[in-house]
Fold this sequence. Notes:
The complex is a heterotrimer of chains A (755), B (358) and C (196).
Chain A: H1 21-24, E1 31-37, E2 46-52, E3 57-62, H2 74-78, E4 93-94, E5 103-104, H3 107-125, E6 130-134, H4 140-154, E7 159-161, H5 168-178, E8 195-199, H6 203-206, H7 211-219, E9 223-227, H8 233-236, E10 240-242, H9 249-262, H10 268-274, E11 275-276, H11 278-286, H12 290-297, H13 301-313, E12 317-321, H14 323-326, H15 331-344, E13 354-357, H16 364-368, E14 376-377, E15 381-382, H17 386-396, H18 410-418, E16 424-428, H19 432-435, H20 439-448, E17 451-456, E18 468-471, E19 480-483, E20 488-492, H21 505-516, H22 528-539, H23 551-556, E21 560-561, E22 587-588, E23 607-612, H24 628-633, E24 639-641, E25 652-656, E26 661-668, E27 676-680, E28 709-715
Parallel strand pairs in A: 6-7, 6-16, 8-9, 8-12, 9-10, 11-22, 12-13, 16-17, 17-18, 23-27, 24-26
Antiparallel strand pairs in A: 1-2, 2-3, 4-5, 4-18, 14-15, 19-20, 20-21, 23-28, 25-26, 25-28
Helix pairs in contact in A: 3-21, 4-21, 4-22, 5-15, 9-11, 9-12, 9-13, 9-15, 12-13, 18-20
Chain B: H1 24-44, H2 56-78, H3 80-93, H4 102-115, H5 118-123, H6 125-150, E1 153-157, E2 164-169, E3 172-178, H7 182-211, H8 216-219, H9 224-246, H10 252-269, H11 277-283, H12 287-298, E4 300-302, E5 309-312, H13 313-326, H14 338-353
Antiparallel strand pairs in B: 1-2, 2-3, 4-5
Chain C: E1 5-8, H1 18-23, E2 36-38, E3 49-51, E4 56-58, H2 62-66, H3 93-97, E5 104-106, E6 111-113, H4 119-122, H5 129-133, E7 139-142, H6 144-150, E8 154-162, E9 165-176, E10 184-185
Parallel strand pairs in C: 1-9, 8-10
Antiparallel strand pairs in C: 1-7, 2-3, 4-9, 5-6, 8-9
Amino acid sequence: MRRALPVMAPGIGSFRKERSRARTKPRPREERLVETHCCYCGVQCGMYLRVSGDGKVFGVEPRDHDINKMKLCPKGVTAYQQVNHTDRLTTPLMRDRRDQPLRPVSWDAAFDRVVSEIQTIQAKYGADAFAVYSGSSLTTEKCYLMGKFARVALGTKHVDYNGRLCMVSAAGANKKAFGVDRAANPWSDMLETDVIMLLGANVGECFPVATQYFWGARDRGAKLITVDPRETPIARTADIHVPLRPGTDAAFCNAVLHVIEREGLVDEEFIAARTIGWGQLREKVREYPPERAGKICGVDPALIEQVALTWGRADKAMAFHARGIEHHTQGVNNCLTVINLVLATGQIGRPGKGYGTITGQGNGQGGREHGQKSDQLPGQRMIEDPEARAHICRAWGITDEELPHKGTSAVEMVHQAERGEIAGWLGICNNPLVSMPNTDRIARGYDSLEFHCQIDFFLSETCVRADVVLPSTCWAEDEGVSTNAEGRVIKYNKAAEPPGEAKPDWWIVCEIARRLGRHADKFGFGSAREIFEELRVASAGGLADYSGMTYERIEQSGGIFWPCPSEDHPGTPRLFEQSFAHPDGLARFHAIDWQHPAEEVDDEFPLRLTTGRTVAHYLSGNQTRRIDALVQQTPSPWIEVHPDLGYSNGDPVRIVSRRGSATYPALVVASIRRDTVFIPYHWATPVAANLMTVDALDPTSLIPEFKVCACRIEPGVAMDETMPPPVPPGGQSYDFSRMTDRQPSAPQGRGTGRG
Amino acid sequence: MNDQPLDYSILPPDPGGARPTWDPSAAAAGLIATAVLALAIYSGSANLLHFDAALVGYTLATLFLAFGATYRLVTWSRSPAARRYLSKSRKALLPRPLGDGTLTASAREVTSTVLLQRFIAKRSRPRWLAHQGLFWGVILATLITFPLTFGWIHFRAVPGTGSGYYVYMMGVRAAHLDALSLLGWLTFHALDLASLLILSGGAYFLWHRWSTRGNSLTQLGRDLMPLLALMAISVTGLALTVSSVFMEGAWYQPLAFVHMCTVVLTLVWIPFGKFFHTLQRPAMAGVGLHKELGVQKGGVAQCVRCGEPVEGTIFLDDLKQTMGELGLGFGDWVETCPSCKRLERGAAYRNHVKEGYR
Amino acid sequence: MTKKALFIDPGRCIGCQACVAACRECDSHPGKSMIHLDYPDPGNSTAAAPTVCMHCSDPVAPCAQVCPTDAIPIDEQGIVGSASEELCIGCGNCVHACPFGVPKLDLVEMLQSKCDMCYDRTSQGKLPMCASVCPTDALFFGTQAELMQKRPGVQAVDIFGFGDETVRTNNAMVAPAGKNLDRIPGGYSREPDSRE
Ligand code: SF4
Ligand code: SF4
Ligand code: SF4
């Protein structure tokens, strides 16, 4: 007879133990520390990987790097668990028809299939019928290679990357206003400032380790202003929090500048010496008195006045924003209104005075500036600029006719696939079945493809729809550089061999290029270092000039800020001290009007849905939804609703938009606006937040409007179930059964008291 | 203390572990135990007739062990928590009114916790196997050597057989044994078997300690010494067998002396180090059962704040009494579950210390 | 020379649970997380509060005092460890006696474990895992002087009140400097209605 377990009081048995028993074994005595950085968000925290005597990565050790000073978030702490994860892809997978299951095949068989499909499709429909969709969690070497591969080996203009879903609005605005796309200051500048304004950036959850800079500034007396429809962890204690309506940021910023201008707090001297366009902008912001903006934004006009006076009277001030204001059909404009504010008060180009976007993806910055963006070439060169084309053609040894022109953006490419304009697809390092808006339409797009190959190291929801899946390395199994949100280039080091037959991404792509035969000699790379050497040459003279960087220099320093044009150049931590990057050296003001979001609320859909991240997960969750500690912290999504809407915690709530519906457990919180609901987006259908989101794009940056669409909610019947992430054939999928209850205690996850 | 630096210089005495103060009544108990053992040795060996004078070192060590272990047990049982649970453990294991199932329950409890140490298997299976090796090796060795040493058992050759022996227990002829039979062989080599069990178990623990990092606070200084001692006993014991069987008794005398030293040291060490758990754990074997019976009898207390079950009412009452005796003035706080204690403290901080950042 | 300690400031905590994930990376207790992270004001705010062992010094470690087998070791610095595997009988006394709700109990293994300040790390001069990774320094490890130098405008308080009783601890809480606090409220008071 088995005895019943003794009484278990709440919160005493929650060890958050690891799933595999093998891992709870005591740690090996022999170890080696490998210096590297986190693979996740744009902070790119330094860390050591602990490697055992027999070459297995078994743990993490905090590293006192300039960026993070030992600190890590829960994702960073557990990142190493990807390395020996049982879900890893270890052989190529293939199927002949989509109704068959994927089966393991040899590399040769997989390559033969990929190459013949590419050749068939390009012969049948033209070179542009084959698209390459890449990602920014790759090292810069790989990002560079993907652009070169698409344009030189495939000769297609259809190449884009998943940063298109991330920070392209900021990139576009920066280019327009400053002439260059990079955060203007190192974060350590924050420690000297008096006021920080944070717009649409849930720093505490999306860039947790950056919080130390904000707190450090506050310890020294700085004031913090946050602007966000939700009172996020960083907004909770802010000096001023502006809980505005999603999609109204431009009106808010215009009104702030209105007050500043009215009060005579603008920096006339700076405006005169270093900017163009103030006159028009002044007229524009005069149309936005706080009363008007207050109505648009749904906030008290007095709050706007207060923000304006705090900012306007500050000796030094800095503004930061993230996806909250960028994921909009007016994303570029939103960012421009922030830049207007910064420029009009002269708050840039000095310690404690500055501006920046906080990139979401690890290598979001490096990934977008070396030529995998549809309109760019390496070194942040524009693809339609004849001089840029000439430079790259020289670097690559091809002719101008051979270099394709500007292509379309990520979401557009999937829509083109749906229309049959794109027939073949090579995806690497992305999972659009979770991350793109209006998931059902994205699924239709992928299903319409004649051939779809996906390269990844875990089997994502997108991989399972592919014809061929090629197993690649995770970040700890290869070396390469990455550029963090500050514009600082850092280096990952190799800590382990890839599992099974998995190969580095660059090897896979070069192998395809060699077998395709078109300019095969231009893909003879034997290591990441060789690619980096070529990238240095290709980027030389561009805005994002890496030519003076070497692996050794990067490792010896705490990272090098681009531009770094020669080997004795120290790099450029702070931009715009003397001049801006436009040919005349001046910054541009832009007179912006607030517009309605693509989809406004109405009687049928009276609420606004906004989406975002939670701290335990990263992007599409293909990596983090498999890591035990993170799943135990946040096993499944929820819908955040205000108490006034009449639900209680855990109630099933069905949300409906024009595109889809799903039922989630309610998390009732007073920290969200009454007219807004929130869903974290890391999970796949049937609980994908993107089932509901609208696929409207910003006309300039072509970023989708993830942050606002119209919806309604109603009492649900049965909760839609969160599926464990897919696993390779023969694998075991994540077992949720250990968790008795999956309801989060707070937006940051389940408290340990819940087990 | 507001602006003064934190003052950590005065550290309170260690409440657990060995108590440095001398305890005369415990010493008296120890002396009594020693005397009783001495008497038993005297009479069991027919007034020292069967007592082997060469084993006097062992005997003295055992007498010291009797004193030390009793002294430790008595001082240990003075602590309110131990006293309460020692008596509860005993009561739970004693089959009071027969027929209520308590007898089988206690037999099961003793088998699973004391003999089979099932809780270790739950922590790690290899560890459990190794521990069982150590455990049964030590038990076997103890059961053989102690009576031999004290002269409680002795053998006498059956005249004329060459391999036949009479076994005498407490001076009385109890059995006949042929050294060449399987049983005989096992009997004469039982100590070697015990040594092998101990060595294999010990080897695992040593290897585990050597190859992995572990918590040095809970293992501090207490882990290796007893293990090494046991292994030293086993190795020297085996060496004695090797000497007599294969080497015609070469080195036998010096080896026997070394062997004795290892044993004596170990015995003397038992009351102080980690070995003490071999006495503590069996004494507490009934606590699990006590808690279970307590829940059956007194029911489960609900957290005063969240209403979730906290623990058995009887358990909490015991604990409150223990805390009262220890002068811990927040005994009633146990009616709040640990999770709610933290939430309450968090709320109090937000309400009375600071709401947000500053 | 003052000792190093953990200084806890829930006001800075963003509830990210890096501490929870990092705790189990320490070699003192591999694979098991000993820290608690609670959201004390659920539904109203995203406030969070970490709980580590405070290493009580006066009365010295109530958990160890109520342990019937003396399983909980205390070192010369006053660091209170996890129960010894040999001695702990899993009775749960410590779990419920601790006024802070710190020790955890594995009811299958019948073994208590608790925060031991990452003994394997701190005894070698490294930071405890939670405090090294905590992105906000809500958990700060160092001397009081180091704390004061980094954060003007705070005080550290190492005395807690539980009803009429006080408990002095080796670790301390951070409070605003101006505030006249002779103790940090521990959340417990005998009168149920005085609870907020
Ligand atoms: S790591 Fe720090 S900020 Fe994050 S939950 Fe723990 S104490 Fe709070
Ligand atoms: S806080 Fe709790 S666990 Fe830590 S020493 Fe004090 S009583 Fe023991
Ligand atoms: S659970 Fe273990 S450590 Fe805690 S009081 Fe009981 S025996 Fe001691």
